[in-house]
Specification:
This protein is of the alpha+beta class and 358 residues long. It has helices at residues 10-24, 36-46, 51-64, 68-73, 76-83, 90-105, 114-118, 125-136, 145-155, 167-177, 183-196, 215-219, 278-290, 349-355; strands at residues 236-246, 249-254, 265-266, 269-271, 293-306, 311-323, 333-338.
Length: 358
């Protein structure tokens, strides 16, 4: 029997959803703990990253930094190295900063207070609601991409899920629907429903535990929802980088701590100018970024990589040091190291794509 998702039916919806979740939830390492620190780490890792990728990273991270004290005193480079390959590195830098705030200013305990927790570096509305509800059963509705999709289909919401202006609408609807008695379980159940049943493509509506409440299922409009605002095509940048050899070592530079890939190490390089060849750009950027001149420039390979808002095509060259002292224009640090030692440094994924060829 179809029950429109009206407030008088919300408790029936909540009960059905939570009962399903208790029985069918996937086994995840962060679901077997009530430690707020571990729940927080998992929620940060799960932002914009698929569960199957997160599991291994989560286990390695917790093994290395089992509590907030250990994370706070660890060098940032160690934290970035464990995070390497997971992407969105600002998450790791902010976790590290927030751990230091917790240890130095908050008695070494993850705050059991929404407002205090929300003020920590890197904590947004979603992670504050998720952690406070799951760890402390505080009544805050978490709204991520999965939950927006569920809400859009349940209520046939026309607001585009990728438009910042829609956030308040989805939050208000989630707040209304939240099970105040078991907010943590309910939030997790909504996320699980979006991830396993109410999927972006081919939702499995026939076996959905709450399909009797769903307007999209009832009207056959599942494929029409959620709505999305059209986005511009993703730009592609052409980049040249140089692996400079000197006395059996290569030069790596460290990016500034803020911004994309902040704190990671890479080979010097940069974007091609109009009409410039990749080889010329490589030589120009080496002179500009690290003040060195090089000789015997030879092409190594081309790699491609996609970030969230742009793509890169990278032409990689090997070359030999000719003259000059390293003077940095852009990077925060530089080191000459043996090729074998590259594995000890946190490197961007795009660099890993050609590391084996060196």
């Amino acid at each position: 029997m179809h029950k429109k998702p009206l407030p008088e039916h919300y408790q029936d919806f909540r009960d059905a959803l939570v009962a399903w979740f208790k029985k069918y939830q996937r086994d995840m390492p962060w679901r077997n703990t009530d430690d707020p620190y571990r729940i927080w780490i998992s929620e940060v890792m799960l932002q914009q990253t698929q569960v199957k990728k997160v599991v291994g990273y989560y286990e390695r991270f917790i093994e290395r930094f089992p509590d907030v004290q250990r994370l706070a005193v660890a060098p940032l480079q160690d934290v970035l190295k464990v995070w390497e390959g997971l992407g969105y590195y600002a998450r790791a830098r902010n976790l590290h900063k927030a751990a230091q705030v917790i240890v130095n200013e908050l008695d070494g305990k993850v705050p059991q207070d929404y407002a205090t927790f929300r003020k920590l570096p890197g904590v947004g509305d979603y992670s504050a609601a998720a952690v406070q509800s799951i760890a402390f059963d505080a009544p805050y509705a978490a709204v991520d991409g999965n939950i927006k999709r569920v809400l859009a289909r349940l209520f046939l919401m026309d607001a585009p899920i990728n438009d910042a202006k829609s956030a308040k609408l989805f939050q208000a609807k989630a707040d209304e629907l939240l099970d105040q008695n078991v907010p943590g379980l309910f939030n997790q159940a909504m996320m699980e429903l979006g991830a396993t049943m109410c999927r972006p493509q081919s939702p499995v509506c026939l076996v959905c535990p709450v399909n009797s409440f769903c307007e999209a299922f009832h009207t056959g409009y599942q494929a029409e929802f959620p709505k999305r605002r059209e986005t511009k095509p993703v730009p592609e940048h052409h980049i040249a980088v140089g692996v400079i050899y000197r006395a059996g070592e290569v030069l790596i530079t460290q990016r500034q701590l803020d911004g994309l890939l902040g704190g990671l190490w890479e080979f010097p390089g940069g974007q091609l100018a109009d009409g410039e060849t990749a080889e010329t750009a490589c030589i120009r950027h080496i002179a500009d970024v690290v003040n060195l001149s090089v000789t015997n420039v030879r092409y190594l390979t081309r790699v491609r990589h996609a970030y969230t808002h742009f793509k890169v095509v990278v032409d990689v060259f090997e070359c030999d040091y000719q003259a000059g002292e390293v003077v940095l224009n852009g990077p925060r640090d530089a080191k000459w190291i043996e090729v074998a030692a590259l594995r000890d440094y946190p490197l961007p994924r795009v660099t890993h794509k050609f590391l084996d060829e060196l």
